TrEMBL record:
Origin species: Streptomyces thermocoprophilus
Protein name, entry field: ArsR/SmtB family transcription factor
SMART domains associated with the record: HTH_ARSR
Keyword list, A-Z: DNA-binding, Transcription, Transcription regulation
Domain HTH arsR-type per the UniProt entry, residue ranges: 15-109
InterPro entries: ArsR-like_HTH (IPR011991), HTH_ArsR_DNA-bd_dom (IPR001845), HTH_MetalResp_TranReg (IPR051081), WH-like_DNA-bd_sf (IPR036388), WH_DNA-bd_sf (IPR036390)
Top-rank taxon: Bacteria
Length: 118
């Protein structure tokens, strides 16, 4: 193991394996408006976005909490790329485990935004 491998291992963030993802934590993670906003942005981006991309109206520590809840529930994957923490939606895993759930939630969120004028 090289010094670079050791540094990368120290920065690796824990994620549940696909078979460990449960519906209850996923629904809890997606029940918060800020976290749903993050997931909506990631779904629209169809790729990774850095944490700094998101302009959330919350403190940095609250933002960090929201990303951690999404990661620990299995909704997103976070990896370090240099100094940036990149976020990607785990769409393949969620679609395999809960077919149609993510699309239904994103569609409902979009319809609600239109209805409420957000």
């Amino acid at each position: 193991m090289t010094a670079t491998d050791t540094a990368a291992d120290r920065r690796a963030l824990p994620h549940p394996a696909r078979e460990e993802i449960r519906l209850e934590p996923v629904l809890h993670a997606l029940s918060d408006p800020m976290r749903l906003r993050i997931v909506t942005d990631l779904a629209e981006a169809e790729g990774e976005l850095s944490c700094s991309h998101f302009d959330l109206p919350v403190t940095k520590s609250t933002s960090t909490h929201h990303f951690r809840v999404l990661r620990e529930s299995g909704v997103i994957r976070q990896v370090y790329r240099g100094t940036a923490k990149m976020n990607g939606l785990r769409r393949d895993d969620l679609d395999a485990l809960f077919p149609g759930l993510l699309d239904a939630l994103l569609d409902a969120a979009a319809r609600q935004a239109v209805r409420l004028g957000d």
